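Chapter review: from sequence to fold.
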Amino acid sequence: MSPVSKVKKVVRRETAFILDSSILGGAINKTADGSGFSVQLDPPLIIPPNAINATIDVEESAIWNTTPNIFDSGPKQNNLFQFFYSRPRIQLNLEIPKGAYEVFQIEQEINRAIIEGSNGDITSNAIQLIPNRATGRIGVKVLYSNIYKILSNNNTIVIDYGTGTQAIVLASGNYTLEELVNLINLSIILVENNPVTTNFITLKNKGVDGEDQSQLELEVIWNDTINFGKVLFPIQDGMGPTLGFTNNNFTYYDYGNVYTGGIVNGNIFFPLLNSIAPVLGFPVQTGVLYSQLIEGSLVPKINSFNYYLIQCDLVDRGIRFNNDYNQIIDAILVDVATGEQILTRPIYPATCSVEKITGNPVSNIRVQLLTDALEPADTGSNDFYIRVSIKWFEPIEIHF
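The token string follows.
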């Protein structure tokens, strides 16, 4: 009998896994935010103890870009704002729901909250968010201007033009501030036998420095160099309270002075606590008044993170993250819009050692999706998966 010959050689081994966070797919111990899950293996994964250079890499992943940037509770809460309008003053304490938003979606939610919170007073968009790509800032403009409801019990203003007085009665209707001022001045000019041929008054929106409100400024501007105009809001059917002034048969507002009335137009204000202000790039306890376009002075925090990290307990240390090792096996760039799915199939995936499991059967694998802050990435109830490949070299003997 001829002697048995043997040859030693090294062969390459590979096994692949799809690790899916879906409960229906078999995931267990899933976290409430959907970021972490485990997979039970039966039979277990076995890499022989004599394996050489055992590694893992992520060859494919699918992750929904739904990690919130607006939070409605906890230490990260940032969803509150206030809106002021009307006379007497109405304050709406509002919030938008937790979610992953882009700028236009935040604008939609803020307007929805204002419209719903006003109980029918406000029926169209009250604010506008305007991103400035050149500066990287976001501008806020308040669009809402009160609609002044003129009825039979608030339709009268009395003018004094020096040589006589006249009660001006306006037609009932809903008017913007500009329409109301124009109507008052036109009605005065059209009265017969008075010397007025130009605008009699102005009504302007006035912001209050450091405050969360805006008011009306009333100024009588008519004079004929001899006589000077005055206005009065009479007790009977006067429109004073509609403009933030008092009805009084003896109080005249004279030419040459500026009079401040009550709060009138819409204003958005960012409170101190849990405010949406940092998301939009505004300091807390600041606001924007009607007709203003104010650009935030800070960098907006629309992006609550920059990329995802995948953590897996199969590795000893994983990819070095700056100066630390946190069992990271891949980084996923966010290259899609909010609410869309990120699909990755890297040509040259990162390779990590799994030497710790050689010779040690693995019956449970733990996967965690993190943000670049190494915090669990809330998936918004969406599932994600990764396809990993484990490779090693194994010495074998061939007998012949």
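Two observations follow directly from the output. The radius of gyration is 35 Å. Residues 70 and 81 are 12 Å apart (CA to CA).
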